[in-house]
Design goal:
The structure holds two protein chains of two kinds. By secondary structure, chain A is α/β, with parallel strands linked by helices. Chain A contains 16 helices and 21 strands. Chain A is rod-shaped, with a radius of gyration of 42 Å. Chain B has an eight-stranded mixed sheet with strand order 3-4-5-1-2-6-7-10, sandwiched between helices. The relative contact order of chain B is 0.17. Classes of the chains: A alpha/beta, B alpha/beta.
């Protein structure tokens, strides 16, 4: 007598122990009937064999259909041969029914992540994944940025858990799905019950999530039930369908995990009045965004700042243990730093892709690379305040037109260089308006004193101002000791009077050689302005109106730099024409970044 | 300058008036402004005209220079010419009537102004030190001086200098009145007024007092001392700050002036402020060599103060009537309003007529 003969009688269809029941409690196969008279004919044997084969085929086809919709994949393990169409459809239907109540992958991940998110700070959960490869245990937590921290233990393979399973992968899958008719059901049950011994669940775990995937697979479901029952605070999660890779949920958890907190890009904002720098965030990704999510931000750099820019991706949260850098709201936790190469365009777009929680890649503009520097280092390099203006600007360039042609040309060249520079830097229409003023000499002769001496180009685009500058030709010196700079100040004051009300900053650049006419005849015997303009009052008025003035003198003596007109007027910057440049002047005017005041991170557009 | 007057029956000559002043003190400009001053004078009967073509041309040319070209006349260049103008006016003179009664009678008065075009250099001190630089006063002279040659004789012409000095000294010594021009700005920068003054004074004394036997006798000339360039900002400010400035009630333009009674004191203040020279000795010498009541001070300006056409009156904030041009020369800025240019001559004429 073979060992098989010694085993308890089992259902020929499902392999369950038959016992004395008339019908199989599992598959309903009739195990015993009342005796009937007459011999067992061949016909009867054939009929019985056909019914048994059909029942076995139906039982095995169900398992095969759970593994694959391909009817032929596991045909060799289906007793009774290849199911016909009707049987296969029915098997597929039954397979689907077996997974009833199971979640899809994404909701299952969400359930897992919700459980993780709800974990008390510092605690861990255990995820037990029961899948086609075996049983895996992962200790899971979230770091302070909401990024999952997963410590996976090696998967315990089914061959170790249930040695009686086939060593052939396809057959083992068939068996795991329910093709167990040929297995010793008592042994199988014993192994599964013993799985909790082989699979160690840490006792300190706050909760245990038992994930069974694919749902409906018989051995997997049974093992899951055992483990869920055995684990403290165990929760069973059934996931429909086979995992794309590995055991499924944990393998794709990082990728599938939606963000729990907002990610943003750190930007610098400049206070209009003080130039103080504060850090802010422009949102990149929102809670719920998952792998592959894209975000596009329009940003700008400070005009004139053509150096590399650091892109800092940060999480906006409420954690108290931030690195000390504060932003508008809450704490700033920087995830990653990236270096963007210098850009010509003052306004640009960045495109960010969420590769995984905690991992962001920039795909636009080209050439952005990870930066191997720390955020504190980066933050320390950001100036506390800058001179460059944050908002729209009105700039008046005023120049003395009288003098030798080469000298007048040098004044015009400086303004031309500045305007060309600004034309490149301010591409947004209306962000910068430029006006021009040029003065010829007062003529102190009867009938000529009251003739206007200031030529005017209204506020417009830098390009318009550049064109107009060509018509600001030099003139002869008619009075040696002074130029009508006071009239320039007067006209500039008028041109810029409305800027503040329009929310625009105002700036004045004055390029000249001589001093202005005084309002009254003084000890220096310079003729007073025929229009009674008072340069001191006008300069004070400009300052009171928040119009800084940068002055460039053809020649600037040491005394002139500290006393008198040039020192009084050029409060925002005082230069000698021969020693200055458009960039220096632009920096003093606050329309372009000062070299020593690189912000280094983007500005909001 | 010769002064003539006449009673009801006619006009008679009274004497000559000489012009005296250091180099660049503005003698030529003063004379050029005279025609304008006469034209602007309130007295309708006041007029001036040349006695010959050269004198008329001198007057016409230099007046045009001031008014049309708005430039200062070139300094006097010795040519040996003698210019002569007639200044006609009316003045009141005492007339003895019957029974010894004396009444004031208005009489026509003509003064012949005879001017040798003596340059200022002639009035240098007795040592007659060469002055190769011969600047126009130096510093901020603001073009108030006569242009170009500054009234100097060509430094290379030694013979001309000697001849000119003698003839001019003879002329001055023979004058009945003297118009002494004193440039305070030059004194502040050069400090040589007394040097110029004393040489000429001694030469006049030598010519007029030699042979006088009366002890204590003084030179007989009337002297109108004119401190020029009142319109210069530094001079004007000192008048203003010193409390000498006045505005004539009958002057609608309200040009500043220094009243005659304050002029001598202001003159003293002006020379006292010079740290370089001994100009205070000038006033002392004048008192010593001339009869005190025959010396009178005037604060004058040939071109006057600037007044814009849109302004009805003098503006304290903007009164300088010269403008430095791009080439460094000075130009007159606006209309010429001489101050106290005619008045010294009128005083001299009246004084001589009343002798």
């Amino acid at each position: 007598m073979s060992s098989a003969d010694q085993r308890p009688r089992a259902c020929p269809v499902c392999g369950r122990q038959a016992g004395r029941a008339r019908d199989c409690a599992e598959c309903g196969w009739t195990l015993q009937k009342v005796w009937r008279p007459g011999p067992v004919t061949a016909q009867l044997r054939e009929d019985f064999g056909r019914r048994l084969s059909a029942a076995q085929r139906r039982f095995d086809a169900h398992a095969a259909a759970l593994v694959s919709t391909d009817r032929d994949r596991l045909t060799s393990w289906i007793r009774g041969g290849r199911p016909d169409d009707v049987e296969w459809v029915a098997a597929l239907r039954e397979a689907a029914k077996a997974a009833d109540g199971a979640a899809d992958q994404a909701p299952a991940c969400a359930t897992v992540l919700t459980a993780l998110r709800d974990l008390p700070s510092g605690s861990e959960a255990v995820i037990v994944e029961i899948g086609p490869e075996g049983i895996g245990v992962t200790r899971a937590a979230l770091d302070r940025l909401g990024t999952p921290l997963l410590r996976e233990q090696p998967v315990t393979p089914w061959a170790l858990l249930v040695p009686l399973l086939s060593t052939t992968e396809e057959e083992r899958l068939f068996q795991l799905a329910g093709g167990i008719a040929t297995l010793d059901r008592d042994l199988l049950t014993g192994y599964l019950a013993d799985a909790t011994r082989l699979v160690t669940v840490p006792a300190e775990a706050t909760g245990t999530l038992v994930v069974c995937q694919p749902a409906g697979w018989r051995i997997l479901e049974e093992a899951a039930r055992h483990l869920a029952a055995a684990a403290p605070h165990g929760t069973l999660i059934r996931v429909a369908g086979a995992p794309a890779e590995g055991n499924g949920v944990v393998g794709s958890l990082r990728k599938r995990m939606p963000l729990l907190r907002s990610y943003g890009l750190v930007v610098a904002t400049i206070a209009p009045a003080t130039g103080a720098i504060s850090l802010g965030m422009r949102p990149l990704f929102q809670p719920g965004d998952a792998q592959g999510a894209e975000s596009v931000l329009t940003l700008r750099r400070a005009p004139g700042d053509r150096d590399a820019t650091t892109l800092a991706v940060a999480v906006e949260g409420e954690t108290a243990d931030s690195d000390g850098t504060t932003i508008d709201r809450g704490a700033l936790n920087v995830l990653s730093l990236h270096e963007m190469p210098p850009l010509d365009e003052p306004v640009y777009r960045v495109r960010a892709v969420l590769e995984a929680p905690g991992r962001v890649r920039f795909t636009e503009p080209a050439g952005i690379t990870p930066l191997g520097r720390s955020w504190p280092e980066t933050a320390a390099a950001i100036p506390r305040r800058v001179d460059v203006l944050p908002g729209p600007v009105d700039l008046v360039c005023a120049l003395e037109l009288a003098g030798d042609k080469p000298q007048v040309d040098r004044r015009r060249d400086l303004i031309r260089d500045l305007l060309e520079h600004l034309d490149d830097e301010f591409t947004d229409p209306g962000q910068l308006r430029v006006g021009l003023l040029g003065c010829r000499d007062h003529v102190f002769a009867p009938g000529e004193e009251r003739r206007p001496v200031v030529r005017r180009q209204p506020l417009g685009t830098p390009a318009d101002a550049l064109l107009a500058l060509e018509n600001f030709r030099g003139t002869d010196v008619r009075y040696m000791d002074a130029a009508p700079l006071e009239d320039l100040l007067h006209e500039a004051h008028r041109m810029l009077a409305g800027s503040s009300a329009q929310g625009r900053s105002a700036r004045l650049l004055l390029v000249a050689r001589r001093r202005p006419h005084p309002r009254i005849l003084g000890p220096d015997l310079v003729q007073p302005c025929p229009f009674d303009c008072d340069w001191r009052r006008l300069a004070q008025g400009l300052a009171a109106s928040g119009v800084p003035v940068v002055a460039v003198a053809d020649v600037l003596s040491r005394r002139a730099a500290t006393h008198g007109f040039w020192a009084d007027v050029g409060q925002a910057g005082l230069h000698s024409l021969a020693e200055t440049s458009a960039r220096k002047v632009g920096a003093d005017l606050g329309v372009t970044a000062r070299p020593g005041q690189r912000i280094g991170i983007p500005l909001p557009a | 300058m010769t002064v003539t007057s006449g009673g009801p029956q006619g006009i008679r000559a009274l004497g000559r008036i000489g012009l005296w002043g250091a180099p660049t003190c503005g003698k030529t400009t003063f004379l050029a402004a005279l025609n304008i001053a006469v034209s602007q004078a309130a007295a309708q009967e006041l007029m001036i005209f040349g006695v010959d073509d050269a004198s008329t041309d001198f007057l016409v040319d230099n007046t045009a220079k001031l008014t049309s070209e708005r430039k200062f006349p070139a300094g006097t260049i010795y040519s040996g010419n003698q210019y002569s103008w007639v200044l006609r006016m009316e003045t009141q003179v005492p007339e003895r009537r019957r029974f010894g009664r004396q009444t004031m009678t208005t009489v026509p008065l003509e003064m012949n102004l005879d001017l040798m075009d003596e340059p200022g250099r002639v009035f240098k001190d007795v040592q007659r030190e060469p002055d190769p630089a011969a600047p126009g006063g130096g510093g901020q002279n603001l073009g108030f001086d006569d242009d170009d040659d500054d009234g100097d004789i060509d430094a290379d012409s030694d013979a001309g200098t000697v001849v000119t000095e003698d003839s001019v000294m003879d002329q001055l010594a023979s004058c009945d009145g003297l118009l002494l021009l004193f440039d305070p700005t030059r004194e502040w920068t050069e400090g040589d007024a007394f040097n110029h003054f004393q040489g000429t004074l001694l030469r006049i004394a030598q010519r007029r007092m030699a042979g006088q036997t009366v002890p204590g006798g003084r030179l007989p000339q009337y002297v109108a001392v004119c401190a020029t360039k009142f319109d210069h900002p530094d001079v004007y400010r000192r008048a203003k700050n010193g409390g000498y400035r006045r505005f004539a009630a009958d002057d609608p333009a309200m040009f500043p002036q220094v009243a005659d009674e304050l002029a001598e004191k202001f003159f003293a203040d002006l020379v006292r402020q010079s740290e370089r020279g001994n100009a205070d000795l000038v006033a002392m010498a004048l008192r010593r060599y001339f009869e005190p009541d025959r010396v009178r001070f005037f604060i004058t300006s040939a071109i006057g103060f600037y007044k814009s056409r849109r302004s009805a009156r003098f503006q304290e904030a903007d009164f300088m009537n010269t403008v430095r041009q791009a080439d460094g020369t000075y130009q007159i800025r606006g209309a010429v309003h001489p101050i106290n240019v005619v008045e010294p001559l009128v005083w001299l004429g009246q004084s001589l007529a009343a002798r």
